[in-house]
Design goal:
Layout (H helix, E strand, L loop, with lengths): L22 H18 L16 H10 L27 E10 L2 E4 L4 E4 L2 E2 L11 H11 L5 E5 L13 E7 L2 E2 H7 L4 E2 L10 H13 L4 H4 L17
Parallel strand pairs: 3-6
Antiparallel strand pairs: 1-2, 1-5, 2-3, 4-8, 5-6, 6-7
Helix pairs in contact: 4-5
């Protein structure tokens, strides 16, 4: 005859069952009844799992409240991005105020200094006026209007001043690189003086190539302009 081991688990809440007028005898009767029910199913069960599982709802509820929720998978919203984790869009530089824009690649500041925009060249104005020079100047005035504040950024790979004492800088209006924007609009071309390429050389070349192929600005207005990054703009007479 096969032996049968009966394991009875009685939840704590059973101790709180009210049995009026019976006391301990009533509780013993309950235990005996449970044991008989468990023994009745012994012969057909080969599982070692308990026949009567704990069901103390109060204990379960308490455990659920105290449990660590842990990760909730993809249903939980992502934590907000910390401000210092966002990459800077504009590099460090010096704030300055625009006083006057005489041509398409020069900015005069309110403190008397003059800025020559790096790595680009626009058509000449004045007595030797070239094709598209006025339109180029007007485009720069739109991007860096007189009285507006700009950010001047030096290039660690290039000279800081030219032989005329002008600052050699990239200019930012808000988050726009003015040098690159002028080339992209066809208001200036790329000029790597002595073949020296700065930190935005790839951006400038890409912008110039797109503008040239699309015949934007000077490329459309002055169709004989050569595309040569090692030389300044040569748009010819107006």
């Amino acid at each position: 005859m096969q032996n049968c081991l009966v394991r009875v688990f009685l939840p704590r809440s059973a101790l709180k069952i009210a049995l009026p007028g019976r006391g301990r005898r009533g509780l013993v009767a309950v235990l005996v009844a449970i044991g008989l029910l468990a023994a009745a199913g012994c012969g057909s069960s080969e599982s070692d799992e308990p026949l009567i599982a704990p069901s103390d709802e109060e204990a379960l509820a308490e455990d659920a409240q105290n449990a660590d929720p842990g990760p909730s998978g993809g249903d939980s919203p992502e934590a907000p991005l910390e401000a210092d984790a966002v990459d800077e869009v504009v590099p460090d530089g010096e704030l300055a105020t625009v006083e006057f824009v005489p041509d398409g690649d020069t900015i005069e500041l309110d403190d008397g200094r003059r800025v020559r925009l790096l790595q680009i060249d626009s058509p000449e104005g004045g007595e030797d006026q070239e094709c598209y020079s006025e339109a180029s100047r007007d485009t720069l005035r739109l991007l860096a209007d007189e009285g507006s504040e700009i950010l001047l950024v030096a290039d660690p790979l290039l000279e800081q001043e030219d032989r005329f004492g002008r600052l050699l800088r990239y200019a930012y209006a808000d988050e726009t690189n003015v040098n690159v924007e002028l080339v992209e609009r066809g208001a200036a071309t790329v000029w790597f003086v002595n073949g020296d390429e700065g930190i935005f050389a790839d951006d400038l070349l890409s912008a110039a190539t797109v503008a040239n192929e699309a015949a934007r600005g000077l490329w459309g207005a002055c169709p004989d302009t050569p595309f040569d990054p090692t030389h300044g703009a040569d748009t010819g007479p107006p």
